Amino acid sequence: xxxxxxxxxxxxxxxxxxxxxxxxxxxxxxxxxxxxxxxxxxxxxxxxxxxxxxxxxxxxxxxxxxxxxxxxxxxxxxxxxxxxxxxxxxxxxxxxxxxxxxxxxxxxxxxxxxxxxxxxxxxxxxxxxxxxxxxxxxxxxxxxxxxxxxxxxxxxxxxxxxxxxxxxxxxxxxxxxxxxxxxxxxxxxxxxxxxxxxxxxxxxxxxxxxxxxxxxxxxxxxxxxxxxxxxxxxxxxxxxxxxxxxxxxxxxxxxxxxxxxxxxxxxxxxxxxxxxxxxxxxxxxxxxxxxxxxxxxxxxxxxxxxxxxxxxxxxxxxxxxxxxxxxxxxxxxxxxxxxxxxxxxxxxxxxxxxxxxxxxxxxxxxxxxxxxxxxxxxxxxxxxxxxxxxxxxxxxxxxxxxxxxxxxxxxxxxxxxxxxxxxxxxxxxxxxxxxxxxxxxxxxxxxxxxxxxxxxxxxxxxxxxxxxxxxxxxxxxxxxxxxxxxxxxxxxxxxxxxxxxxxxxxxxxxxxxxxxxxxxxxxxx
Length: 525
Ligand SMILES: Nc1nc2c(c(=O)[nH]1)N[C@H]1C(S)=C(S)[C@@H](COP(=O)(O)OP(=O)(O)OC[C@H]3O[C@@H](n4cnc5c(N)ncnc54)[C@H](O)[C@@H]3O)O[C@H]1N2
Ligand code: MOO
What we know:
Bound molecules: ligand LQZAQKY5, molybdate ion
Number of domains: 4
CATH architecture of the largest domain: 3-Layer(aba) Sandwich
Structural class: alpha+beta
Protein name: Molybdopterin molybdenumtransferase
Shape: elongated
Number of helices: 10
Radius of gyration: 30 Å
Oligomer: single chain
Domain MoaB/Mog: 307-443
Cofactor: Mg(2+)
Keywords: Magnesium, Metal-binding, Molybdenum, Molybdenum cofactor biosynthesis, Transferase
Region (Disordered): 23-132
């Protein structure tokens, strides 16, 4: 790369960072209201999202609801609403880009207009038996039994889920080990060192000590390397920098206490100890631990097979949006996201808005979970509900009290075959993914649910009066700050986000207690 190309790259990087910085670093310092507790793994029954833990882990039955034939009513034209950049009116809102807001990001109050960003169900739209957000998650988590288990070689197990507890196949360390380079010493010093050239080399890592060598006798020492087996009889390891050799004798210039710098056998675990519970996702650290504990392969749950069907005549798979058509944003997003969740995903299939094509695709699919995007509403080209009725699918969740994404749905196509219908608006689809698809996949993979983190909000966030809101946020000085560009059709906020904050209906106690943060699988730290 030439200097000029290097400068151009630097400038482009600075510009990109400046755009991000606008969202990441507010002009007004946020108020922090506390620090978040550490996240833990908990069984689903203890999931704080679960609505009523005392109700037991069984699925919440969906009320029987006869499905109508395809609705003839055309989609209502959206009411004329002021295009506010804030979703709900009459609330104090920190946003330096909101209409009427100051460029300095001072709090503004949006006048009470009586309309919100999402006009919600219009006349003629049957919202169905909508579920509370937490209940929807709970139903989704219990909709499927875990798939079976299979052995998997360590080098292929990343991202899988432990089907059983990881028990140590050996003590760790498996022998008393020198923690430092120096000398293994027996008893108090000074110590005699071996004289023969072979013995003087001492014990190296990976070497075994021949049984005929016998225990190290009191008053004797032998050179030893970090990681080497400590000879029987040794009482400590004296570090190289703490000893001086003179005339074949080792003198300590700092006292070595009993057992110092010896890692005793079994210090980390004993053979048979449970190192990790079933349901743990296999991370690089788990692979390392498993290898250290003697595993060549791991028992993992079978990966859920997921098929993604992207519906919409208007969607292009390449090039610029044109002539009323737009790029499919969900095909590229869902595949890798689902893979990160441990699923085996077939390449997304794009289907035209054609009821017969959808019927054929759903009938032919043998996936554990089919995920569709679009077609969940009641517009003339929204074929999902009628097609599910034609397939005699069992509705488990038909609409959720969550914004965005409220038309999301979950249905059982047949025993062992589920369908999650994500709304077409991209952020609404992500809300559906996190609300329904993630718990279904965790259930199928038998994966433990990570307790969500509670986080403080760095400023007021509008709450919906009756629905949970999922808002892209960024971490900042011990709190989270809501990002702009969080409209249902936008991904710009999400792409810069560290997670989605869960704002309970009406705001709940979130101002004092903080809110839950739904983690994104690629965000670390
Ligand atoms: N009369 C009503 N109309 C609508 C309601 C309602 O309650 N009453 N709800 C609105 C809400 S909220 C949502 S969300 C959408 C859900 O619509 P669908 O799931 O049927 O999705 P589509 O109509 O097919 O698409 C909606 C929107 O999203 C765009 N889209 C679709 N797929 C993709 C994709 N793969 N990548 C990028 N963008 C996509 C599509 O072009 C539309 O703009 O219904 C509202 N209507
Ligand atoms: O607006 Mo819709 O809430 O699901 O995106």
